[in-house]
Design goal:
By secondary structure, the chain is mainly beta. It has one domain. The protein contains three helices and 14 strands. A hairpin with a 2-residue loop joins strand 13 and strand 14. It is globular, with a radius of gyration of 18 Å.
């Protein structure tokens, strides 16, 4: 895909975020949400070096009841960090957060905080759907500026689109269907990213429990941290929750895999296969 990441550390979030985005297939407002306040998902990120897989990072996603400018909201947050044992090599502390309206589920305010090595980046978005504008504040080393961006009818930040995408009815898809999606990130709209639906498959989680998952691939385009003409494999639970269980992808220097470590307060209990 044509998204250029700031540096290596963004891989932690990007693999989890992009692995879940099918928002263009469910319309602007989903009929019902696949999550509830209190949901917490924690992931282990492993990196393949030579012949060895090493645990290198963790990521955490939460949902809470909140308010923004006195409006009732859901607060969505994702945080990623390298393990302390790898901080000496390349320290990562990233955060994404989105306040979404409880009325129409559209994002009101989006936050991106990147702390990777000696690099830092702050983005704040305020969404004005009446005038189809996003007002953006950007801060990084020696830079502080404000900007605006045009919104299309279904304009969502990357984190809120992740959560909404889990509302897709995969029963309407046929194996081999390719789904185009658009993503807003860093003041740009990225289009023509392809999602390939591959049906269902039973896999084992990190605790060796069997669970039926929906399997799809994401087409990756040369020029990013990924190899060109490759795909990222993603597995999400084949139930009402649509929780990502496992992700794997080849990158320019090795490969990565992401496992779900713990799930708390999911909307529906997960069903494992004996």
């Amino acid at each position: 895909m044509s998204i250029l990441l700031t540096n290596r550390g963004s891989l932690i979030f990007f693999c989890l975020l992009i692995s879940q985005i099918f928002f263009g297939q469910i319309g602007c407002i989903p009929d019902k949400l696949p999550f509830i306040s209190g949901e917490e998902l924690i992931y282990d990120v492993e990196y393949h070096m030579g012949n060895t897989w090493v645990s290198a990072a963790k990521a955490r996603f939460i949902v809470k009841d909140s308010t923004y400018n006195n409006n009732p909201c859901y607060y969505l947050e994702g945080k990623g960090r390298t393990l302390k044992s790898y901080d000496w090599f390349f320290k990562v502390r990233d955060k994404y957060a989105s306040f979404i309206s409880t009325k129409d589920y559209k994002p009101i305010h989006f936050i991106r905080r990147v702390r990777e090595g000696d690099f830092y980046l702050n983005y704040d978005y305020d969404f004005d759907y009446k005038n189809r504008k996003a007002f953006i504040e950007e801060k990084r080393k020696n830079i502080a500026r404000q900007d605006t961006m045009d919104l299309i009818p279904c304009s969502y930040d990357i984190l809120s689109s992740v959560y909404f995408s889990r509302a897709i009815d995969f029963k309407k898809l046929n194996k081999g269907d390719i789904i185009p999606i658009d993503i807003i990130l860093d003041k740009e709209m990225f289009s023509d990213i392809g999602i390939i639906y591959n049906g269902t498959k039973v896999i084992k989680d990190q605790q060796q429990r069997k669970i039926e998952c929906i399997h799809f691939e994401i087409e990756l385009i040369e020029g990013t941290i990924f190899k060109g003409n490759e795909t990222m494999d993603v597995y999400v639970t084949n139930d009402e929750n649509k929780i990502p269980i496992y992700v794997e992808a080849e990158i320019l220097v090795g490969s990565i895999r992401v496992y779900i470590k713990s799930i708390k307060n999911s909307k529906r209990p997960l069903t494992y296969i004996p």
